[in-house]
TrEMBL record, chain A:
Stretches assigned to the MIP18 family-like domain: 36-111
Transmembrane segments: none
Species lineage: Eukaryota, Viridiplantae, Streptophyta, Embryophyta, Tracheophyta
Name listed for the protein in its UniProt record: Protein AE7-like 1 isoform X2
Gene3D superfamilies: 6.10.250.1280, Fe-S cluster assembly (FSCA)
Coiled coil: none
Organism: Coffea arabica (Arabian coffee)
Top-level taxon of origin: Eukaryota
InterPro entries to which the protein is assigned, alphabetical: FSCA_dom_sf, MIP18, MIP18-like
Family: Belongs to the MIP18 family.
PANTHER family: CYTOSOLIC IRON-SULFUR ASSEMBLY COMPONENT 2B-RELATED, PROTEIN AE7-LIKE 1
UniProtKB/TrEMBL annotation, chain B:
Gene designation: LOC140005886
Keyword line: DNA damage, DNA repair, Nucleus, Repeat
Family to which this protein belongs: Belongs to the MET18/MMS19 family.
InterPro entries recorded: ARM-like, ARM-type_fold, MMS19, MMS19_C, MMS19_N
Function (record text): Key component of the cytosolic iron-sulfur protein assembly (CIA) complex, a multiprotein complex that mediates the incorporation of iron-sulfur cluster into apoproteins specifically involved in DNA metabolism and genomic integrity. In the CIA complex, MMS19 acts as an adapter between early-acting CIA components and a subset of cellular target iron-sulfur proteins.
Annotated ranges, domain MMS19 C-terminal: 638-1046
Residue ranges of domain MMS19 N-terminal in the record: 46-323
Protein name: MMS19 nucleotide excision repair protein
Subcellular location as annotated: Nucleus
Length: 155, 1097
């Protein structure tokens, strides 16, 4: 794999407080909302550093949109540097995590934020191509990396 | 006498440097014993030692001298002649010159000098010789550690025990001390050195004496050690045991003490010590500052106020620097609520304040002049924005404010005079900062002026402060006090819409009230009662002021709680209000009156009565309340039934129960008799002259026919209140006409009057069980009461009823049966009867009475009977196989188990003096479970089964887990059966939730593990089903949580279910409720990871 770190000195931000949702409201609108998705993906570990995607500001609640009726989720993430070759790995992690945590009828789109990556189009295409995602996850090295990011307890 | 050969070998063994230390010690001991027992004289020994003491071989000479020294140490208690001592000390003094054999000489001298007077001591002349020799020959700092220590000990001994001998030596002595202790580093030697300084300083207190000229030198040596730091070795360092560490710490503390003593030993040090300490205060090291303050505080009284006065200015400025200029205090965590004014002071500040306190006590005029005259402090207080808002104040300013406050508090605390001075100077300014000017109160147009919230806060606080000033210092006259109270009252009257400030004002009033109560100021108490309490009491029944009733009551109660006399006034007012309005409320249903009476009654139950109980008031208040209510009921003739009226009835019942339960037995008897008189005068007793009480079984049916539909509203009131009284009675209290009362309650409960049923339950719970326990005039024991209750015909609908089997029933009741129920809605009467029976059963079950068996069998009978032959057989009587009627009836029979076992707030608990047998739930569980199980097995009707399981669910959810867990193995299959049966009907959803909670408790319990393991597959299958239960979210959530718990079980047991669980959970991920989805994510993760990290299956 890579010899040195791609981004040796990332900027680390503070973790935000979890917003406790009001309990005991049986009539609350419990539709899937961006915050629910964000709560699930914010703790994914960065492939390179022992920090969460939240801490590295790769993700924010605002960067997630969801339409429950159409069953679509769109996540736009911002790699820490323009040439980040880890962008695809982060995307894979997001896709895996959402696949685990949401029913299959949601269509998930994952993109890098416009202008945040040198090969923006290529990355987007790669991340939303079923065949390529499946192929990537059959690669044992990648699979292991993704699993570690998803279930790491290093944070 | 010992022969020379005997002791010579010991001498030789000691002197021989090749022998081991233990051998040497043994020889010394042997020789000492010889000497002590006079088997050997000292002269003989010295003569024998002669050669060793004078030889030119320095090693042998030193060993010889040491032997002599050691022996003298051991002989400290043996009387010796003066001549012997003289010659020995003379010899040893000489030997001090011989540095090679020094140790022996030191040990010997020390031993001789330390001798007690009764065994012969060294003369002063000899001591002086020793001292001179010491000064002449000993170069302490060039010696080893042990020798230095010996030297210091010798010097210390000389200074302490022969002051007259050393005093003439003067300057030379101090020269030698300085030389000796200079550069000393060993802790043990330091202790001695510091002590020597202290003793020497004490020895020469005269300012014109020799110490004065050396004070500077000595202090220079001493000052170098300040502040003492102890970097203790870290515990992970090898070879440092806990013992050693603690010994080191102890030593360190000793050094601290000795050093402090030396430091403050003489006022002569003052010119050197205080500047040094002041200098250290400017150090950046916090610990140095803390130490300096400590030492200053310690030295100040030692050096005396005259000497300290010189440094007053410098001391004050350093204290001010720490406290005011750069206060280092941290906002404490809990201070947010209090406007952020609670600070935790740093150590430095604490020490500075202690020092300040000491200095003020020493020389209060000087210090106060400086503090009060300090421009910064003055400006700080004067320049405070008026009115100011604490929330707008920056943190640093708040810190300063806090420090200045502490500073002034310390100044004021030291004496009465200083307190007066501080107050004269600052009090007016501070009050002004709070928004009230001391001199001129009447100008304040407080109520009308629309001040900012924070300034109101300050103002109220200020008024409260003024009002709570102790009378002996009285800056506040009674008139002013009155004014303050009036202001607060008028503020409360007009500002009820501003919730926060209203609360503040009320709190201020309460604080004032509490203060007056605490300090027993009778004049002010009278004023307070007149202005505040009476005013508030007058609000109860007037429309003025136009504030909400709940606020009025809050204000009234809270001011009442300040003291017993105030509370009594308020109770009087409330009693008057009830008297005045009750009839209006209850007869006419006048809306305002109803609301008022409800509020007052609630106030009684929730605040007033508990307050009297807490504060040891009499039962009179409770008794009066009950009496008033009964009087009012008695005097009114009819009642309008409205919705509010029911609310009023509820409040009256609660108040009645709360009042009665706090009364003594005698009062309770009076109340219950009074209540019975009202009851017997009501239309409920048209047959009171008939043989109603005696020939019951015949008259009862017609009685029921007559009255069951026509219970008037007034009668409902009366019987409800009477039931409330009965519920709250003590077990010893005697109830008159019990039989009639029982009949009445039975009649009422068939109408679905729950309080009557509860009262019946309370009665059978508390009636005495045996004749000899019974009160003399008590007509009934519990057995008789149960007879009366159970022979009543209302239970007849249970045809194959066990009550009858138990021969509590006579034959031939069926005739009445149809008659009595004719014209009524059968099912509803039956349901009421079952509910009533359940409450009676609850009373019995709690005292552990056998009668509960019959009642349980009745319930089971109802559950089984109606569907015995197939689902709804035609022969079923009296209900003709209509599902709509059977199911509610069976449901109520099943729910009766819930009433039996659950804890009730309304009755039958400790507050209402119930008889409670320990572990009654466990007992019932053990007895009823086999019955339920066998019934379930026998029944083949779906409805019966589901109802039986409903009962089962009630029983297990109310029984403590510990009673069931030992049989978890049998219980779990039943639990699962009941879950699968109950899920088929929506009406069981609450019960399912209770069952699944029991299941999860078993899963979590260690003792249930084996049983869970055995039934793992079945449990998982059932939980999977419940995870999709459509009618209740918490059931799905709990089921999924249980599944998470199941994933902890051993791998081999649960692996077969993994795929199934994951499939079910992936559906739960799409649950409409977020809580369920989140649990599902957790569950999926837990189950996926039992095989691998991948979620694929």
């Amino acid at each position: 794999m890579t010899l040195g770190l791609i981004n040796a000195n990332p900027v680390v931000h503070a973790k935000k407080k979890r917003v406790a949702r009001p309990l005991d409201d049986p009539h609350a609108d419990d539709a899937v909302d961006p915050l629910e998705i964000y709560d699930i993906v914010r703790d994914i570990r960065d492939p390179e550093h022992p920090y969460s995607l939240e801490q590295l500001s790769v993700l924010s609640e605002e960067s997630i949109t969801v339409d429950e009726k159409l069953g679509r989720i769109l996540i736009t993430f911002t790699p820490t540097i323009q040439h980040c070759s880890m962008a695809t790995v982060i995307g894979l992690c997001l896709r895996e995590k959402l696949k685990d945590c949401f029913p299959a009828h949601f269509k998930v789109d994952i993109k890098v934020a416009p202008g945040s990556h040198a090969d923006e189009e290529a990355v987007n295409k790669q991340l939303n191509d079923k065949e390529r995602v499946a192929a990537a996850l059959e690669n044992p090295n990648l699979r292991q990396l993704v699993t570690e990011c998803l279930y790491s307890s290093e944070l | 006498m010992a022969k020379p050969t005997e002791y010579v070998k010991h001498i030789e063994s000691y002197v021989d440097s090749s022998s081991s230390p233990s051998q040497q010690a043994a020889s010394v001991d042997a020789l000492a014993i010889l000497l002590k027992n006079d088997l050997l004289t000292l002269e003989a020994l010295v003569r024998e030692l002669d050669l060793y003491l004078t030889t030119t071989d320095s090693i042998i000479r030193s060993r010889g001298t040491l032997l002599l020294g050691e022996l003298l140490t051991q002989l400290e208690l043996k009387p010796l002649s003066d001549a012997a001592i003289h010659s020995l000390i003379g010899f040893l003094t000489e030997r001090l010159e011989d540095w090679r054999a020094l140790r022996g000489a030191l040990v010997g001298c020390l031993a001789l000098l330390r001798r007690k007077t009764d065994v012969g001591v060294v003369t002063e002349n000899d001591a002086e010789a020793v001292m001179k020799s010491y000064m002449q020959y000993l170069q302490v700092q060039s010696m080893g550690q042990h020798d230095r220590k010996l030297c210091f000990e010798l010097l210390e001994c000389l200074l302490e025990r022969y002051p007259n001998a050393v005093q003439p030596l003067g300057n030379e002595l101090f020269y030698s001390i300085c030389e000796g202790i200079d550069e000393e580093k060993d802790p043990q030697c330091l202790i001695l050195a510091f002590h020597i300084v202290e003793v020497a300083a004490k020895l020469f207190p005269d300012p014109s004496g020799p110490f004065t000229s050396y004070a500077a030198d000595i202090f220079e040596i001493l000052g170098r050690y300040f502040p003492i730091h102890f970097t203790h070795p870290k515990s992970e360092d090898i070879g440092v045991s806990r013992d050693e560490l603690s010994r080191a710490l102890l030593l360190m503390q000793l050094i601290f003490c000795v050093f402090q003593l030396a430091f403050a030993a003489t006022p002569l040090f003052e010119p050197f010590a205080i500047p040094l300490l002041l200098d250290k205060l400017s150090s950046s090291l916090p610990s140095a500052k803390v130490e300096s303050f400590k030492y200053l505080g310690y030295c100040a009284p030692m050096y005396g106020s005259d000497r300290m006065a010189k440094h007053g200015g410098a001391l004050w400025s350093s204290v001010k620097d720490v406290l005011y200029t750069s206060p280092q205090s941290a906002l404490s965590v809990e201070s947010e609520s209090d406007g952020g004014m609670i600070f935790e002071e740093s150590d430095i500040m604490v020490e500075a304040l202690i020092l300040l306190e000491g200095l003020i006590q020493q020389n209060s005029d000087l210090l106060l002049d400086m503090i009060l005259g300090d421009e910064d402090i003055n400006n700080f207080i004067c320049s405070f924005p008026k009115p100011w808002d604490i929330h707008d104040t920056p943190l640093q300013l708040r810190q300063q404010l806090h420090s200045v406050g502490r500073l002034l508090a310390v100044s004021a605390k030291s004496s009465m005079a200083s307190c007066n001075r501080v107050f004269e100077k600052f009090f007016p300014q501070m009050m002004e900062a709070l928004g009230c000017s001391v001199g001129n109160h009447s100008d304040e147009s407080f109520a009308t002026e629309d001040r900012a919230l924070s300034s109101r806060f300050n103002y109220v606080k200020g008024l409260q402060l003024l009002a709570t000033f102790p009378r002996s210092f009285a800056p506040v006259s009674l008139l002013l006090f009155e004014n303050i109270l009036l202001k607060l009252v008028s503020a409360i009257t007009s500002n009820f819409d501003k919730k926060f400030s209203w609360g503040l004002e009320l709190k201020a009033l309460v604080e004032i009230g509490l203060y007056i109560e605490g300090y027993q100021e009778s004049e002010k108490a009278a004023t307070f009662a007149r202005i505040v309490v009476d005013k508030f009491v007058s609000w109860i029944s007037s429309d003025e002021p136009a504030m909400p009733l709940s606020l009025k009551m809050q204000a009234i109660c809270e001011t009442g709680m300040t003291g017993i006399s105030n509370m009594l006034r308020i109770v009087q007012g409330m009693e008057k209000a009830i008297s005045a309005k009750f009839t209006q409320a209850y007869v006419d249903g006048n809306f305002e009156s109803v609301e008022l009476v409800i509020k007052v009654l609630e106030c009684y139950s929730a605040r007033v009565l508990p307050w009297f109980e807490m504060n040891g008031g009499s039962e009179e208040v409770a008794w009066n309340l009950a009496a008033i209510i009964w009087d009012k009921i008695d005097n009114s003739s009819s009642v309008n039934l409205t919705v509010q009226n029911y609310e009023l009835l509820g409040a009256a019942m609660t108040a009645m129960k709360q009042a009665v339960r706090r009364c003594s037995q005698e009062s309770q008897e009076k109340i219950v008799n009074r209540a019975f008189r009202v009851l017997s005068a009501s239309t409920l007793f048209p047959l009171k002259d008939s043989p109603f009480a005696t020939s019951l079984s015949n008259s009862e049916d017609s009685y029921l026919n007559h009255h069951v539909d026509r219970v008037s509203c007034r009668d409902e009131w009366i019987i409800s209140l009477y039931a409330s009284v009965v519920i709250a009675l003590r077990p010893q209290t005697h109830v008159q006409n019990l039989k009639m009362v029982l009949q009445l309650f039975i009649m009422a409960l068939t109408k679905g009057h729950i309080p009557s049923a509860q009262a019946l339950g309370s009665l059978v719970n508390k009636l005495p069980s045996k004749t000899n326990e019974r009160h003399l005039s008590q007509e009934y024991g519990v057995e008789e009461a149960i007879d009366v209750i159970l022979t009543s015909s209302i239970w007849n609908f249970c045809q194959s009823n066990t009550l009858r089997k138990c021969s509590l029933f006579g034959g031939g009741n069926e005739i009445h049966n149809t008659k009595c129920l004719a014209g009524l809605n059968h099912t509803s009467v039956h349901i009421s009867a079952i509910v009533g029976l359940a409450w009676i059963g609850k009373g019995l079950i709690m005292r552990g009475h056998e009668g509960i068996k019959d009642i349980t069998m009745t319930f089971l009978g109802v559950l089984l009977e109606n569907t015995n032959n197939g689902d709804f057989p035609e022969s079923c009587d009296p209900i003709e196989g209509k599902e709509q009627e059977v199911i509610p009836l069976m449901k109520s029979a099943a729910d009766a188990f819930h009433i039996l076992l659950s804890d009730s707030e309304d009755c039958l608990n400790r507050n209402y003096h119930s008889v409670i047998r320990p572990l009654y739930k466990q007992r019932f569980y053990n007895s009823v479970m086999p019955l339920l199980l066998s019934s379930t097995r026998q029944s083949n009707s779906i409805i019966t089964r589901s109802m039986l399981f409903r009962s089962f669910a009630h029983v297990i959810s109310e029984t403590p887990l510990s009673a069931m867990i030992s049989e978890a193995n049998k219980l779990i299959p039943l639990l699962l059966d009941s879950l699968s049966t109950l899920t088929e009907d929506v009406m069981h959803k609450d019960v399912i939730y209770n069952v699944i909670l029991v299941l999860s408790a078993i899963l979590m319990d260690k003792n249930g593990q084996v049983a869970v393991l055995e039934n793992a597959q079945a449990i998982i299958n059932q939980l999977i089903g419940l995870a999709a239960y459509p009618h209740m979210m918490v059931i799905r959530e709990t089921a999924i949580q249980c599944l998470v718990a199941m994933s902890e079980l051993p791998y081999a047991r649960i692996y077969p279910s993994r795929t199934k669980v994951l499939q079910a959970i992936s559906k739960a991920l799409d649950d409409p409720k977020r809580a369920v989805r989140q649990e599902a994510v957790r569950c999926r993760q837990a189950w996926a990871s039992i095989a691998s990290r991948s979620l694929h299956f």
